[in-house]
Amino acid sequence: MVDEPAARAEHDHASGEWQLLLSRLNDWIATADAAALWERFRRPLLYAGWLLLALIVLKVYGALVGTIDSVPLMGGLLELVGVIWLSRFAVERLLRRSDRQQLLDGLETRWRRFLGQG
Questions:
Q1: 9 inside domain
Q2: Residue 86 in contact with residue 93, Cβ under 8 Å?
Q3: Are 47 and 81 within one domain?
Q4: How many CA atoms lie within 13 A of 55 on its CB side?
Q5: pLDDT band at 34 (very low <50, low <70, confident <90, very high)
Q6: Is residue 37, in this structure, part of any structural domain at all?
Q7: Does pLDDT of 2 surpass 70?
Q8: Residue 112: which pLDDT band, with cuts at 50, 70 and 90?
Q9: Could you tell me the residue range of the domain that residue 60 belongs to?
Q10: Residue 36 falls inside a structural domain
Q11: Which among 78, 60, 56 is positioned nearest to 69, based on CA atoms?
Q12: What span, in angstroms and rounded, lies between the C-alpha atoms of 107 and 113?
């Protein structure tokens, strides 16, 4: 194979730029303190990781819901299950005054703990 001088010169020039970039990067890493860099970029990297994880979870969740929704009669069946659960919850915890009061007290306690008051 015959190398043309122009092609070789372009390759040498690109290789030289790459070597320059690598040498500057190595100098920067050598002079920078790794612990200081980690402290500086830890929080943004953590946020980026959590954001990426949330996007992946939402994508998987959306695919799962889409798959369930594509099954015939599944939407209506899930609505029926929800109505049955809500009816049972109401009968067990909302008919008697003492049960309602206990439920409201529990919710109020949780709300105060959430606000940091209890």
A1: yes
A2: no
A3: no
A4: 6
A5: confident
A6: no
A7: no
A8: very high
A9: 42-70
A10: no
A11: 78
A12: 10
Co-location of 63 and 81 in the same domain:
no
Number of domains observed in the structure of the chain? 3
Please tell me whether residues 79 and 118 are part of one structural domain. yes
Residues 99 and 92: beta-carbon distance below 8 Å: yes
Give the per-residue pLDDT at 118.
66
Question: Residue 70 corresponds to which tokens in the numbers above?
Answer: 């594509």
Tell whether the model's pLDDT for residue 6 goes beyond 70.
no
Q: Tokens standing for 88?
A: 């049972």
User: What is the pTM assigned to this prediction?
Assistant: 0.45
Q: Token pair 């920067």 is at which residue?
A: 28
Q: What are the pLDDT digits (tens) for 59-105?
A: 999 999 899 888 898 888 989 999 999 999 999 888 899 999 999 99
Are 82 and 111 in the same domain?
yes
Q: Is the dihedral of CA 60, 63, 64, 65 positive or negative?
A: positive
Q: Does residue 60 form part of some domain?
A: yes
Q: How far apart are CA 74 and CA 71, in angstroms?
A: 6
What are the tokens at 45? 């990297």
Q: Answer yes or no: do 13 and 50 share one domain.
A: no
